[in-house]
Amino acid sequence: MDIELDKILCKKYPKLFKQRHGDVRKTALCWGFQCRTGWAMLIDQLCFKIQDHCDKMKFQVEVNTVKEKFAGLRFYVDGADEMVYRYIEHAERLSYHICEECGTMENVHTWTIGWYRTLCVNCAKKGEYPAYYTPLYYWYFTKIRSRWINFKWRVKSLFRRRDK
User: Fold this and answer.
1) Residue 48 C-beta-side C-alpha neighbours within 13 Å
2) What is the pLDDT of residues 17-66, one digit of tens each?
3) Are 65 and 76 in contact (CB under 8 A)?
4) Domain range summary for the chain, segments of one domain joined by +
């Protein structure tokens, strides 16, 4: 994530990001936010909900790691209750529908070549992934499903020959 956005989030939620410049042996947040800038608004909203809940319930949660993994947001915390985990789960599910680069929710797909990435078509065309790379679901239906149908047909034809 951008250094400026990192500083803004840490300044806005100092209780949550206490471990931001902590020891490497205790936290992964010392490396910063390990995701792209498109999810900054999502992370901001999630932190607001968590901090508001913590203030009402009179306890404090500390964020341990914020990263991208398998094209989705991962947000690890210490000292959370069930409601905080629900907020996190909702944000993680929502991250699959928000572009990592620009933050748009229009025309977003999970792309794969090497890493899994959640990108809109425009960012996929101009970024690391050229336009000819296919979304994951298209790849599944063209490659894996056709192999399975071919395999199933071979098995059926094997048994037909034995019956005759």
Assistant:
1) 6
2) 999 988 888 888 888 899 999 999 999 999 999 999 999 999 999 999 99
3) yes
4) 3-133, 137-164
